[in-house]
Description:
The complex is a heterodimer.
Chain A: H1 10-21, H2 25-47, H3 50-67, H4 77-99, H5 105-112, H6 121-140, H7 143-154, H8 159-166, H9 170-192
Chain B: H1 2-12, H2 14-18, H3 24-36, H4 38-59, H5 69-111, E1 118-121, E2 136-139, E3 147-150, H6 157-164, E4 174-178, H7 201-207, H8 217-225, E5 251-253, E6 261-264, E7 267-270
Parallel strand pairs in B: 1-4
Antiparallel strand pairs in B: 1-2, 3-4, 5-6, 6-7
Helix pairs in contact in B: 3-4
Amino acid sequence: MIATTGVRMPGVEDQLVTRCRAGDQDAFAQVYAQYERQVFRYAYHLLGNREDADDIKQDTFLRAYQAIKSFRSESSLQTWLLKICGNLCRDRIKSWDRRKVVYDSTLRDEQMGASSESEDPLAIVQRNEMTDTIFRVLRGMPESQRIIIVLHEIEDLNYDEIAAILGCSRTSVKLRLFRARRALKERVTSLMKPGG
Amino acid sequence: MWFRSECSKVSDSLWDYSSQRLSAAETAHVERHLQQCARCQAEAEAYRYTVGMLGAARSQPIPASQRTWQDLRHGLATHRQAARRSADLLPRLTLAGAGTALAAMLLVVFFGGAHGPKKTVDAPRPNGPQQGVPSVHEASSPPEGMVAKREPQAGGHDLLSSFLGFGSFFPGAVTRLTSPHANAGPAVEPRSSPPRRRPHARAARLAGPARPASIPADYAAQLDGGNVPPRRQPRNFVLNPVAPPADEEPARRYVMGSIPVAQTGAGVTASSDGTEDGGAW
Lengths: 196, 281
C-alpha cells in the first residue's frame, strides 16, 4: 500500500490553513479526511497496535487544531502532521520503555488476518509471517533508524519530506537511511540464520 | 585492492538494486560485479530478502481506525470549553487576588498599630531634676495626665512592628507623650536608649591596663598627678663578661636562683662566669 505522498498544492492548502486558523471547523474536517489515514498508518507502523495508533492519531489532530495558528506553512501540512505524530509516538514508546511494555506480535496477527478473505490463504499466512518478522526486527532497532525506515520504505516519503519531518538536512537523511538499511539487513539476516 | 573498492561501491547501491530503483546501466554494472564476487552476491541476496519483507509489510492492509471525525469533534468541543472556562476564570482570579491584597494593605495601614507594647517617653518636666533628658521605659498605657502621640519613624519599622506585635523589638516604635506643661517650652526630642558601643580598641590600648581596685592611695595620687616614676630600663645581658674598671668596685647583688648581675653605674651587665659570683649557673 503506497502512501498518498504530499504532492503539495500550495494554493489549496494555504486556503485550507487560513480557514483553519480562522476557526473554521469544516476546513479542519477536510484536513482530517485528507490525512487521517496516513497519520494512523504511520503511528501503526511505529507502535505496532491499533489502539495506540488510534490514540496517537486523535492526539495528533487535536494538537494540530490547537497549534494551527503557529503553523507557518514552511512545510506541507502532511509533513507537519507526520512530525507531530512522530513526536507523540516517540513519547509513547518512551513511556513503554519506562513501564517495560514489550511488543506483542500475536496482537498483530489477530488484527491483520481479517481483511483479506479473497486471497490465497497460504499467501496470506506467508505475508503475515513476513510482516510480523519485519516489524519485530523494526521494534528491536533504535528509534531513529526505525522512524527513517518507516518513513522512507513504508510511507514512501522522499528525502526532502523526511528531512522536514526529522528536522535535518537531505544529506543527513541519506546517510541515516543508508545506515538504517544496513542495520535492518543484518538483523534480518541474523534472524533468518538457523541459530538466530 | 580494485575489487575491494568496487565491492564497497556496489555494496552502497545493493539496496536500490534489490528494490529495482537503479537505471539500466547501473543495474548492468552491479550484475557484472555480482558474477565475479561471491561475497557481494550473498549480500545482495540478504538485501533482496529484506526488501521483499518490507514490501510485504507495505502491502499488508492495516486495520481500520476506530476513531472518527465525530470523536475528534467532540474532543475539540471539550477542548474549546475548557479553554473558554480557563479564559473566563483567569481575570476573576486575578481580580480576587488583587482585592485580597488591597484589603490586607488597608488593614495594615488602619489597624496595624494597635497591638504590642510600645516604648513611651516621659515628657520633659520644666522643674524636674532631669530637665530636657527624658527617660525611656516600657509601658502599655501612658502615665496619668499624659497624652500619647505616636511618631512613626522612617523605614516602616513602626508600621511593621505594630502589625506583627513586635513593637518592643524595634527601636522605631516610640510613642511621645505630651503633658499640658510641655506646651510652655520647646519640644525636646526623646532620646532612645543609648546604643551599646564597644570602646575603641586603640583608645583602650592607649589608656593602659585597668587600674586595680586595691591600688595604694599615694600611688594613685601620683598616677593622677602625672608624677609617675620612670620605667626601669631593660637589662643588658652579654655573654662575655665585661671587666670592670680597676678603680671602681662594682656593686654586687646576688639573687638566689637568678643570673648574677654586675651593676656598673648606668648599665647592667651579667657575668657569665659563675665561679666568682657564687656558682649560680
